[in-house]
């Protein structure tokens, strides 16, 4: 701003060139100024509510935070406590099972659905709509609904399973069954979302490839192996990465309503345990340390996904 | 691992050798198509049935809500009457509506401004800034929940509408999608306007914004849906019963009326209905914005 103040002075001395210079400069500066103003609201907001919290989350792990906002440096104290907290390691173990089961199942189901609704079937639009529909319902409603359907006394679904001769089970009342139920419900909610992503990926594959394969007499399995699967790699990578990150850190709403982490902490995933430490027990510092550890795991797992799928690039060296 | 499961769906289209297929080509294709249609039908029903069952059960009386029948033997609106008279449910709905609408409008304005600058204005450090904004996409909400809570507490945002609205406005997803869209717009109109002496704000407001109506409406639906369904942030950021949003309202309802499933399901239906309506009205936009986020 101050440099602009000197411009008229110079302009008076060397009129023509300076005036041109000034106009050119001021137009460039006007563009900079406009960019700054256009970007300011979002950048300030992102800094305050995403950037600073992100940095803070790393530092908070080294503090003990009281409920009223006083911070006390404890060094690695929180991490030492984490190492000897059996409940946290239980939560990590359950999280590992949850991720290892959920991600492949969700991947296979959504890809299967994507392949299915890509076919030219009568009323295929209606099928797509129906399969996507659970996704628009909030996880709170989903949790309530399935708590009702899986209730071991009055639940319609648990009743139907019993009527089918599969025995009476307490689907939300036994730790391992409750985890299985949580996974099944998550698949039910999310399959439509990933189906749409797979469908988009499938529609990107040029139709000529399929026609050529047909002429060559390739069967459906062969076509899938040699055309669909390799060309779908970017989409597969994206789905795998998204669903892994979501499985590691998401689902809090659903657990909260469906099982509250129970029974016997059987569905207490790491993110739920962290939530409890922070907002039930007021251990913000300790919970942040656990959160940082979970983020570290998330980064490592993402790196593995990246390696395995080669970042979703097409060339697979075959 | 995924491959094995996939054999099921694609194998059902027929796994006989090509010669046989060619001979009975048309007949086989037709029966395979019928089989696939049936499979799709079964899966679609399985996907929707729980939701239909919820809606149907919300019209049942307390004694019959757990009878397991798909259709209520007698319709009653008592559950809805109860939810709206005995519980401040109207307040919850209005809170959610107000919060989601304000977030959506402000977020679209801010994100489209930022995206316009990132896509169309020239200034030093533009690509670096974009990379920085993009990198915040990797920060998932649950991970920063605790520090965000502490920041909101320092800023005196807890237990206020501002606290429910402001932190929810900012996410890089919208900026990213809009920037991609603006990069693809033809430059001619803008350049003509600039030659005519229009300022950048005029160009943005009267040329770029009207041209981005399709993507803005897709994002609007998406933002509104996400914020209407939000639960965790309102849960930790508010205590005041007057600020209860609808998702929080139904989850506390469940604690109060543990076995009164008829009331709980009526409330859950009311909470889900606006989103289902939105979905049916703007299905294409929702699906399009998901597709774009996946490919690009």
UniProtKB/TrEMBL annotation, chain A:
<dbReference type="Pfam" id="PF00528">
    <property type="entry name" value="BPD_transp_1"/>
</dbReference>
<keyword id="KW-1133">Transmembrane helix</keyword>
<feature type="domain" description="ABC transmembrane type-1">
    <location>
        <begin position="92"/>
        <end position="305"/>
    </location>
</feature>
<feature type="transmembrane region" description="Helical">
    <location>
        <begin position="32"/>
        <end position="63"/>
    </location>
</feature>
<feature type="transmembrane region" description="Helical">
    <location>
        <begin position="177"/>
        <end position="200"/>
    </location>
</feature>
<dbReference type="InterPro" id="IPR035906">
    <property type="entry name" value="MetI-like_sf"/>
</dbReference>
<feature type="transmembrane region" description="Helical">
    <location>
        <begin position="287"/>
        <end position="308"/>
    </location>
</feature>
<feature type="transmembrane region" description="Helical">
    <location>
        <begin position="96"/>
        <end position="117"/>
    </location>
</feature>
<keyword id="KW-0472">Membrane</keyword>
<feature type="region of interest" description="Disordered">
    <location>
        <begin position="1"/>
        <end position="20"/>
    </location>
</feature>
<feature type="transmembrane region" description="Helical">
    <location>
        <begin position="129"/>
        <end position="149"/>
    </location>
</feature>
<keyword id="KW-1003">Cell membrane</keyword>
<comment type="similarity">
    <text>Belongs to the binding-protein-dependent transport system permease family.</text>
</comment>
<keyword id="KW-0812">Transmembrane</keyword>
<feature type="transmembrane region" description="Helical">
    <location>
        <begin position="231"/>
        <end position="248"/>
    </location>
</feature>
<dbReference type="InterPro" id="IPR000515">
    <property type="entry name" value="MetI-like"/>
</dbReference>
<protein>
    <submittedName>
        <fullName>Sugar ABC transporter permease</fullName>
    </submittedName>
</protein>
<keyword id="KW-0813">Transport</keyword>
<dbReference type="InterPro" id="IPR051393">
    <property type="entry name" value="ABC_transporter_permease"/>
</dbReference>
TrEMBL record, chain B:
<keyword id="KW-0812">Transmembrane</keyword>
<keyword id="KW-1133">Transmembrane helix</keyword>
<feature type="transmembrane region" description="Helical">
    <location>
        <begin position="34"/>
        <end position="55"/>
    </location>
</feature>
<feature type="transmembrane region" description="Helical">
    <location>
        <begin position="92"/>
        <end position="117"/>
    </location>
</feature>
<feature type="region of interest" description="Disordered">
    <location>
        <begin position="1"/>
        <end position="21"/>
    </location>
</feature>
<feature type="transmembrane region" description="Helical">
    <location>
        <begin position="261"/>
        <end position="282"/>
    </location>
</feature>
<feature type="compositionally biased region" description="Polar residues">
    <location>
        <begin position="1"/>
        <end position="13"/>
    </location>
</feature>
<feature type="transmembrane region" description="Helical">
    <location>
        <begin position="129"/>
        <end position="152"/>
    </location>
</feature>
<protein>
    <submittedName>
        <fullName>Carbohydrate ABC transporter permease</fullName>
    </submittedName>
</protein>
<keyword id="KW-0813">Transport</keyword>
<keyword id="KW-0472">Membrane</keyword>
<keyword id="KW-1003">Cell membrane</keyword>
<feature type="domain" description="ABC transmembrane type-1">
    <location>
        <begin position="93"/>
        <end position="282"/>
    </location>
</feature>
<feature type="transmembrane region" description="Helical">
    <location>
        <begin position="158"/>
        <end position="178"/>
    </location>
</feature>
<comment type="similarity">
    <text>Belongs to the binding-protein-dependent transport system permease family.</text>
</comment>
<feature type="transmembrane region" description="Helical">
    <location>
        <begin position="215"/>
        <end position="236"/>
    </location>
</feature>
<dbReference type="InterPro" id="IPR000515">
    <property type="entry name" value="MetI-like"/>
</dbReference>
<dbReference type="InterPro" id="IPR035906">
    <property type="entry name" value="MetI-like_sf"/>
</dbReference>
<dbReference type="Pfam" id="PF00528">
    <property type="entry name" value="BPD_transp_1"/>
</dbReference>
